[in-house]
Amino acid sequence: MTKFTAQSLYSDLSQLDDLIFKQGQHQLEQELNDFVQSFETKDELVLVDSIAKSYVQLTSCEQKLKSSENTELVTATQQKSKLVLDDLTQVLESINEVQAEKNNLPFQSEREAYLIEREERKKAIENELRRESDKIDERYAKLTRDSIYRNLVGYNP
């Protein structure tokens, strides 16, 4: 007769777990690391919050620069800030255009109408199914009552 100890059973289960799940866990960990790394190292990622912060800084920059004494530096900085401001407005416009295109996909209204119609058909079918199920339940209840009555009274119509 073979005797199993808890320690040997746990070690066998641990090896089985490693054999079954280790490759999947390793692949999942690798994919997550690649995903996180791609977003941490991406330099071109532009966030709307960072654009808004830059816009606020640039619009308030002009007032701060006017109060300074060196006008040549002020004008050069103003020109640079206007260029950056123009770039930011272009980026914001492109973001707005992309969002508008996303919202105005072709056949969007037809798709929404189809989805509404499909939902209505689904509800109608469910209601019909519920009615039929109720009819079947009522018929079964009636047959059961009749059967019980016939068995108790001994009546056969």
TrEMBL record:
<keyword id="KW-0175">Coiled coil</keyword>
<feature type="coiled-coil region">
    <location>
        <begin position="115"/>
        <end position="146"/>
    </location>
</feature>
<protein>
    <recommendedName>
        <fullName>Biogenesis of lysosome-related organelles complex 1 subunit 5</fullName>
    </recommendedName>
</protein>
